[in-house]
Write a structure and sequence with these properties.
Elements (H helix, E strand, L loop, with lengths): L4 E4 L11 H9 L2 E4 L2 H11 L4 E4 L5 H13 L4 E4 L12 H9 L4 E4 L4 H6 L9 E6 L4 H10 L4 E6 L4 H12 L4 E6 L7 E6 H10 L6 E5 L9 H13 L4 H12 L3 H8 L1
Parallel strand pairs: 1-4, 1-5, 2-3, 2-4, 6-7
Antiparallel strand pairs: 7-10, 8-9, 8-10
Helix pairs in contact: 3-4, 7-8, 9-10, 10-11
């Protein structure tokens, strides 16, 4: 089979942030599978892509996988793009890629724009370790569960501008007003902005400066606890003797010492 399949990263904002190789490939392929044809049409018109566009999004990805495989078997070259950034990174692509791998079809990925790496390149960190969780859950309980899971790792997530303030309030309530966060919006665009401060200060700032555009945020890793495990066990013992429940004990210790509630709860029981 002489056909080729490409995963192509596209700009996350500024249309000039596309690689020469991406332009070359998107000019050469027969078909471009895109999240939204209207969005990709803007890029196609700017760079003169003549390939046929068709939609491939999270609601029809399984169906489109078969279409793409058929096109490849016919000897056509196909590229996959998302509205912005790299396909498969909090965007459709995983189902299709799985189908192609099952059929033994070679996949070529073209590196390029990605909001996560663009954001992190502007954020000072003590080490390279981070956890990317995609779009953070809307539910408060689920948010806290996943943030607790990575509390000792820089935790990066996407969020809607309409929900960011509520998420920041949840972080403030759970980890205190001094929890360090970073928020990036409108990356690579005219009104690009990065704010790094305590969650309380970030909330105050955005209360005065309404949020717009795509959001990438990070809850900085909590420093290793200054309280030893033996000290924690002693404090847990005291609270147990006072009649506090395991749930209350984990909440109190977490608030006082910034410990992960799940970790404390397991110690209590």
């Amino acid at each position: 089979m002489s056909s080729q399949f490409f995963v192509v990263a596209t700009p996350i904002g500024n249309l000039k942030d596309i690689t020469l190789r991406a332009i070359e490939v998107l000019n050469d392929v027969d078909y471009i599978a895109c999240e939204d044809t209207r969005v990709t049409r803007i890029l196609a018109d700017k760079y003169g892509f003549s390939a046929k566009l068709f939609d491939c999004h999270k609601f029809n990805e399984k169906e489109r996988s078969e279409k793409i495989i058929n096109l490849l078997e016919e000897g056509k070259n196909v590229a996959l793009v998302s509205d912005a950034g790299t396909p498969g990174i909090s965007d459709p692509g995983s189902v299709l890629i799985s189908s192609l791998i099952e059929r033994g079809i070679k996949i070529t990925s073209l590196p390029g724009a990605c909001a996560v790496t663009t954001f992190l390149s502007m954020i000072p960190r003590k080490n390279e370790e981070y956890a990317f969780i995609g779009f953070i859950p809307r539910n408060k309980k689920q948010q806290i569960e996943i943030l607790n899971k990575y509390r000792y790792t820089n935790c990066v997530f996407y969020e809607s501008p309409n929900r960011l303030m509520e998420t920041l309030e949840n972080i403030k309530e759970e980890y205190g007003p001094n929890a360090l966060v970073a928020v990036g919006r409108e990356l690579t665009k005219v009104f690009e902005e990065i704010k790094i401060n305590s969650v309380e200060e970030i909330i105050s700032y955005f209360q005065k400066n309404p949020l717009k555009g795509e959001i990438v945020a990070m809850l900085f890793a909590k420093e290793t606890s200054d309280v030893s495990e033996d000290e924690l066990k002693q404090k847990i013992k005291i609270l147990k003797e006072e009649g506090f429940s395991p749930k209350d004990i984990s909440r109190i210790i977490s608030k006082l010492y910034g410990e992960n509630k799940n970790k404390v709860y397991k110690m209590v029981i």
